[in-house]
Amino acid sequence: MRSFRSLSVSTLVSVYVLILVGGIVRSTGSGMGCPDWPKCFGRWVPPTSVSELPADYKKIYALHRERKNQRFAKYLTTFGMTDTAQNILNDEAVSRENDFSPVRTWIEYVNRLVGVVIGLLIFALFVVSLRFWKTERTLTFVAFSTFVLVGFQGWIGSVVVSTNLMPWTITVHMFLALLIVALLIYIVHQSSYGKEINSSLGFWWLIASMGVLLVQILLGTQVREAIDQLATAVSREAWISNLGAEFVIHRSFSWIVLILHVGLIVKLHKTQGSKAFALTLILLILGTILTGMSMAYFAVPPFLQPVHLLLATMTFGMQFLFLLKLKRKEEPTFA
Predict the structure, then answer these.
(1) Each residue's pLDDT tens digit, 78-109
(2) How many domains in the chain?
(3) Exposure letters 152-170 (e unless 16+ CB within 10 A, then b)
(4) What is the pLDDT of residues 15-54, one digit of tens each?
(5) Distance separating alpha carbons of residues 321 and 19, to the nearest angstrom
(6) Same domain, 243 and 115
(7) Chain CA centroid to CA 311, Å
(8) What is the DSSP string of 120-137?
(9) Range(s) of the domain holding residue 260
(10) Quick one: 115 and 152 in the same domain?
């Protein structure tokens, strides 16, 4: 059981590393560093110079992505999302091919390598969880669901590439990552020791705090989408001043996030067993808000964007872990 617990914790940490790397991909504009998927420029090891590519490489990979988008559009039409499908097929930005950049290509390639490692870890987690099929089937089911979801996440990643970073696909990619984090935290929780924490004081404050944080993350993706649109039109120093209502709403909503979490901390401060959680949570919230403020005042420094994203996802993880601990049994699930 100890080895399974260690594996689940290592996998969870690796997912957070991938979220950080994904933030670096976004902040450096490396999302299209590899125009195809799962290979990169048709290779398992990407090129380091444009001379290694054919002269018409842009046309080749634009056609490759167009065929993939046509298949994806058919899926969307089947589910009644006809307008979305037509937008993908008719948007000129989707078919636009970027110039080759070895730095961006390798940043995206490293992102994919980390994703492969995590896929292997989650598969191993599922295989080991089969030992507990007779005693704790829910654990095995969650491990299997996580593995399937990671595969689906990989496919969504390929859609993100084929649609040339279409904004809504990136948002779906982000929230699937949060769902994977939640499932892994459940596995860690079920394989760990601990006592139940009194839920009478802070349960509904916690639910409300989780809700507003998820809304704030969604608003943040909209700000990021708006910045992506501005990135090619104005200089970095002018990004914030050219943002519209989405930035104002995101900035103002952070006060609601902060107030609710302060209320939650006050509720939990005197609750036995929750002080460490309360301290960690308020530090994460303050770190998220401070990095957001720093981006607003210092022209969105690239290194702060992935940190801001990581802190927000870690805050969600802490909230979800504490929600599980509110129903914690005094005895461990496994002997």
Answers:
(1) 888 888 888 888 877 777 777 888 999 999 99
(2) 2
(3) ebbebbbbbbbbbbbbebb
(4) 999 999 988 988 887 888 888 878 888 889 999 998 888 8
(5) 18
(6) no
(7) 11
(8) HHHHHHHHHHGGGTTT-H
(9) 195-335
(10) yes
